Amino acid sequence: MISGSVAKTSSDTTTGSLSYINNLVTGATTSGSYYIIVPKTLINNTMATQLRSVYGYNVTQRSNFNGTNDEYIVSWGSILDPTPTPTATPTPTATPTPTPSSTPVPPTPTPTATTSPTPTATAAITPTPTPTSAYRTYNYIISATDTNLATGNTGGNAQYDGKVVAIVTDGYNCGNTTPRTFTVSFTAGSFLSWVCSPNGVTPQFGYYANDTLVTSGLVSTQTLAGGCPC
Q1: Can you give the pLDDT at residue 35?
Q2: What's the CA dihedral at 173, 175, 180, 185 to 10 degrees?
């Protein structure tokens, strides 16, 4: 039997990354599901926040046993929303048209000159860009070797200490489908990313060390996964 300290280390390692969430999502999508239920022993509020803000999942918390055992519902589709049932529309009853006793002869109208209205110019409407199948997403396997080298950053780059980053150009994520350029960061672990990039535009992949982006010699990998789910 393993010791308590070894068990705690294994537990901390598991809940310190989202690798097992990826496995649960992969299994659910393979079977055609749109959500998973994760017990509180395998997820915490920090992880739930990361799933919402970075990957665009819907994450809700609920009590499943007299309000004592919390669990989380992680969803990525609208299958949980009820579909309204249409109600029958009554068919109007035809009203008989009365037949006049005699046919009146209408007077001959006098033509009246009309003025054609001057057309009013309307401003052109620019459509909002909608993500299409021209976007692709990626799988990430992040090595602790790279995250350990990501140190010495200052200012806005300080948030990337201990992380590997992917800089997405003209892409989007499921939480915000407006095409834009942004940076997403990963801790060590395995991730199925919901960040979408245009075909032919691979995210710049690396880590910041002393405020310099390092993109060569990485142990971590960025692999093309397929089409975007949103």
Answers
A1: 83
A2: -60
* Inter-residue contact 178 to 167 (CB < 8 Å): no
Q: At 179, is the secondary structure helix, strand, or coil?
A: strand
In the chain, the amino acid numbered 207 is: Y
Q: What is the pLDDT of residue 219?
A: 96
Tokens found for residue 170:
């003209």
Closest CA to 225 of 123, 129, 141, 158: 141
Contact present, 153 and 211 (Cβ < 8 Å): yes
- Whether pTM > 0.90 for this model: the answer is no
Residue numbers in the chain where pLDDT is lower than 50: 79-93, 123, 125-131
Which residues, other chains included, contact 16 with Cβ-Cβ below 8 Å and sequence gap of 6+?
187, 189
181 φ/ψ sector (left φ>0, alpha ψ -120 to 50, else beta): beta
Write down the pLDDT at residue 120.
58
Q: How does DSSP classify residue 8?
A: H
What are the start-end ranges of the E strands in the chain? Answer: 35-39, 58-63, 70-75, 135-142, 164-173, 176-186, 189-198, 204-209, 212-214, 221-227
